[in-house]
Amino acid sequence: MGLNLGKIRIKWFADGEIYVQLQESVRGCDVYLIQPTSPPANENIMELLVMIDACRRASAKTVTAVIPYFG
């Protein structure tokens, strides 16, 4: 596709909460998030949901989640 990956910072706090910070503007952009469901699945899905929320709050035009399944 010839696209570069976006910059994002993901941090887990000591109490188990997750922090996601987009390090570039996504305002008005089409965002594609790629997140597998491999173990630990609960943590990966939670990261994905928080990233989607961060993109929507940052005024992304669309957010598409690509979730490959490695059975």
TrEMBL record:
This enzyme's EC code(s): 2.7.6.1
GO biological process: nucleotide biosynthetic process
Superkingdom as given in the UniProt entry: Eukaryota
Location of the Ribose-phosphate pyrophosphokinase N-terminal domain: 2-71
EC primary class: transferase
SMART domains listed in its UniProt record: Pribosyltran_N
Family: Belongs to the ribose-phosphate pyrophosphokinase family.
PANTHER family (alphabetical): RIBOSE-PHOSPHATE DIPHOSPHOKINASE FAMILY MEMBER, RIBOSE-PHOSPHATE PYROPHOSPHOKINASE 1, CHLOROPLASTIC
Identification of the protein by name: ribose-phosphate diphosphokinase
Species of provenance: Castilleja foliolosa
Taxonomic lineage: Eukaryota, Viridiplantae, Streptophyta, Embryophyta, Tracheophyta
Gene behind this protein: PRS5
